[in-house]
Amino acid sequence: MNGITILLVSIAALFAGYIFYGKRLAKKWGVDASKKTPAYEFEDGIDYVPTDSNVLFGHQFASIAGAAPIIGPIVASTYGWLPVLLWCLMGGIFFGGVQDFGAMVASVKNEGHSLGYIIQKYLGKTGKTLFLLFCWLFCIVVIAAFANIVAVSFGSVSNNPTLTMSNGSTATTSSLFIVFAVGLGFFARKFKPNQILQTVIAIALLVIAMFIGLKAPMTSLDVHGWSYIVFVYIFVASVVPVWALLQPRDYLNSFLLIFMIAAAVVGIIIARPEMSLPAVTSFSVGGKSMFPYLFVTIACGAVSGFHALVSSNTSSKQIKNEKDMIKVSYGAMLVESLLAVIALVCVGSLGGMPEGATAQQTFAMAIANFLDIVHMDHNLSLTLINLAISAFALTSLDSVARIARLSFQELFTDEDQDPSKVNFIQKLCQNSIFATIITLALGYALSKGGYLNIWALFGSSNQMLSALALSAVAVYLKKSGTDSKNVWIPMLIMMAVTFSALTLLNISNFNAIGTEGFVFAKQGLQLIFGIFIFITGILISYNSIKSIFFKD
Prior knowledge:
Layout: H1 3-28, H2 38-41, H3 53-65, H4 68-76, H5 81-108, H6 115-123, H7 125-154, H8 161-191, H9 195-215, H10 223-239, H11 246-271, E1 284-285, E2 288-289, H12 290-298, H13 305-313, H14 324-349, H15 359-372, H16 378-411, H17 424-430, H18 432-447, H19 451-479, H20 485-511, H21 520-550
Antiparallel strand pairs: 1-2
Helix pairs in contact: 1-5, 1-14, 3-11, 3-14, 3-16, 4-12, 4-14, 4-15, 5-13, 5-14, 5-19, 5-20, 6-7, 6-19, 7-10, 7-16, 7-18, 7-19, 7-21, 8-9, 8-11, 8-16, 9-11, 10-16, 10-18, 11-14, 11-15, 11-16, 12-19, 12-20, 13-16, 13-19, 14-15, 15-16, 16-18, 19-20, 19-21, 20-21
């Protein structure tokens, strides 16, 4: 099978899904362009900020994409390219897109509140508490995985000078991105430039950052050194106003991410790579069966619970017009599915992951090979693609750290409680600084095991959150008198997948206790998180299903 055929079929399928299925959901769920959105109703200049749909699409896409839609399909390709392709397309259209759009609709229709608030409104305070606890635990896992990915992509490599230089250039450029983003945020807020001028400035800053990065790579720090710096950055990003860093950084990165996807598409068209992978290998690979591991490994390329948090915690508070929701949520999800397909073609062109290479390096190597045909410098291609991947991961960290902080604070907030009766512990936990510190401390401890060691836990808990988000959307739709049948099948299938995966993962980590290879920072912490995630997932699912199917 030729990579061009796979790419064109995927583009056609995803475009058809957006036009026919997405638009149908928008009509069925009562999207109304004439209604005033929470961004205007509660505008505060911090979280509720009316934002242009193009800028917000960039924020949404950069936040949800991360490195997962690249890593997941490449790792899952051991099962063959066909099952990965089918799940990326079907999952994106009928699962991920439905979840992302549904979560945003439910939030915007409820004053921009999170899914935790919506669960409380329809399932009670216990349901809200369990959901917020689950979200917080999941966000810690995401922070651990993605922070390690960024540190690895920045750090020097003692036995590989070429990779050290590439990583150093990526580190310099990404650091400049942050500085430039803050400047762009203050400039846009003070002078309110039009979209064209803002775009020109953003592209100019992007080029300057890349030029300096290539000329002055930071090569003095290893992975551990960058790990500390990354967590300091996450702390700052989670507490400053969205206009000061989150929005302008995502806007800058969106151009880099578009460049990466465009370069990959052009490279595939020019190189016309053949899929050197078999269509299907085996139902079981390395002792892991296709069900459920294929689904939790691909994760974000098809459906991701993290997307629901972005849709309902940050993006929903910035929607200017309800009609923008389909583009920002459903549209961004389908573009992410396309990125997953591109990653699949990349690994397929190489016949699998080269020995010793990471998934990110596999992706970058493949695209650099494609661009060799047009005589683009190979090392420059590698650096630019690695930069884009790290940008994905870093922008996801921006959002997930803020979501984790908000979830933790909301855990200890009771809107019905008399403010004079709030005790010291509640006040402390409601403090944004304290909430961020305790979240990042746990994330740092979990990150020491390396992202590959926690990828299965990340994928399983991520897909579990998807099931819970879909159940929250289904409850909202039913209680508001809207048809929720489009959500039932995705919800039930994701529950079956994730409870199976978490059960197998917890058993594996439990069996590792007492063995020679047991490390608490790896299997031990994962087991603790896995058990808590499984229990809270069971309780939330039970209450949601009871409300949807058996209770008026």
